[in-house]
């Protein structure tokens, strides 16, 4: 059912209580609010309201066995909904608030939110708008990325409007997100703890506090990003990993252009080589690439039939970037 979406622009550094309060009232009514975090924009509903959470799945077209991350604004709120063990407590102390989600034993979150699991994924965002919204809503907020399932995640309010305009009650416009990739997700119910989805907080950073490995069993999705196609443009997406990216990408682009396709090339520190190809720069380094990845993919998807993307070494945040690119398209070593 289409509704009239209200866009509320706020100061991300000093969010106005009266403006955030309007959105919080919608959460209390069981409605949907899109809001910025430090990672991507989230599509929020009262995590404890089954009817409200069901709207998230309907609006996104999200499979019911894909659990949602529950966002909190305080450590006390974590203990209201989850049962942190000693390892989880250590990671909470080290990384909350921040781009880390912890899978813990569930205490009171409805099964629709957890996809029927006895665990719940929880994080405390490091973003003043998100924290204020949760605080004024007086409830934990379940929030996946605020886009249609399978598509690149939104890093600006206008991305949310493109995907979900007239399907959500309020979009809080807090500007562009800082990190640009979804949170790292760690399962603390197993030992060593397992990274279910890589993000801005790297394996190396986690290893300073706990023993950790990457998950290998994806038969049960304990967190988002594990089971289904994600982050994919409509355009055919080809990811090239290795040296001489621009040379190889230009050769491939030439072949597609000859066949009448519109082609885009995206990478780090690119120079334009052809007039009939659209070139987009992710930035100068991996941090800038992470921030701009989804934005650039969305921009090229509007103009191109084929997108050729530069892959990167799977170290540090490069692991998170490649995790998204593996799901967005076909990956080739060059």
From TrEMBL:
Pfam families: Sua5_C, Sua5_yciO_yrdC. Its main location: cytoplasm. L-threonine binds at residues 39, 71, 123, 143, 183. It is an enzyme of class 2 (transferase). Its EC number is 2.7.7.87. Gene3D superfamilies: DHBP synthase, Threonylcarbamoyl-AMP synthase, C-terminal domain. It catalyses: L-threonine + hydrogencarbonate + ATP = L-threonylcarbamoyladenylate + diphosphate + H2O. InterPro entries: DHBP_synth_RibB-like_a/b_dom (IPR017945), Sua5-like_dom (IPR006070), Sua5/YwlC_C (IPR038385), Sua5_C (IPR005145), T(6)A37_SUA5 (IPR010923), TC-AMP_synthase_SUA5 (IPR050156). Required for the formation of a threonylcarbamoyl group on adenosine at position 37 (t(6)A37) in tRNAs that read codons beginning with adenine. This is Threonylcarbamoyl-AMP synthase. It comes from Ferroglobus placidus (strain DSM 10642 / AEDII12DO).
């Amino acid at each position: 059912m289409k509704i009239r979406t209200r866009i509320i622009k706020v100061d991300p550094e000093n969010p106005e209580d009266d403006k955030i309060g309007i959105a919080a009232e919608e959460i209390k009514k069981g409605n949907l609010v899109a809001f910025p975090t430090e990672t991507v924009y989230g599509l929020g509903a009262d995590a404890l309201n089954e009817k409200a959470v069901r709207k998230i799945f309907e609006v996104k077209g999200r499979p019911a066995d894909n659990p949602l991350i529950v966002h909190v604004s305080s450590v006390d709120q974590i203990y209201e909904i989850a049962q942190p063990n000693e390892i989880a407590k250590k990671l909470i102390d080290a990384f909350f608030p921040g781009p880390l989600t912890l899978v813990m034993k569930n205490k009171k979150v409805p099964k629709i939110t957890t996809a029927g699991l006895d665990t719940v994924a929880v994080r405390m965002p490091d973003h003043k708008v998100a924290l204020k919204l949760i605080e004024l809503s007086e409830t934990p907020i379940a929030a996946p990325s605020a886009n249609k399932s399978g598509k690149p995640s939104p890093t600006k309010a206008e991305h949310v409007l493109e995907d979900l305009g007239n399907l959500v009650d309020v979009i809080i416009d807090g500007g562009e997100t800082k990190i640009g990739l979804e949170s790292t997700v760690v399962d603390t119910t197993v030992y060593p703890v397992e990274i279910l989805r890589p993000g801005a907080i790297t394996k190396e950073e986690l290893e300073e506090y706990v023993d950790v490995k990457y998950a290998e069993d994806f038969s049960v999705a304990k967190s988002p990003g594990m089971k289904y196609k994600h982050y994919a443009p409509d355009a055919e997406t080809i990811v090239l990993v290795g040296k001489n990216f621009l040379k190889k990408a230009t050769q491939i682009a030439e072949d597609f252009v000859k066949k009448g396709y519109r082609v885009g090339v995206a990478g780090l520190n690119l120079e334009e080589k052809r007039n009939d190809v659209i070139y987009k720069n992710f930035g100068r380094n991996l941090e800038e690439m992470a921030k701009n990845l989804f934005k650039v993919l969305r921009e090229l998807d509007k103009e191109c039939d084929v997108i050729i993307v530069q892959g990167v070494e799977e170290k540090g945040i490069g692991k998170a970037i490649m995790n998204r690119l593996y799901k967005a398209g076909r990956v080739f070593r060059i």
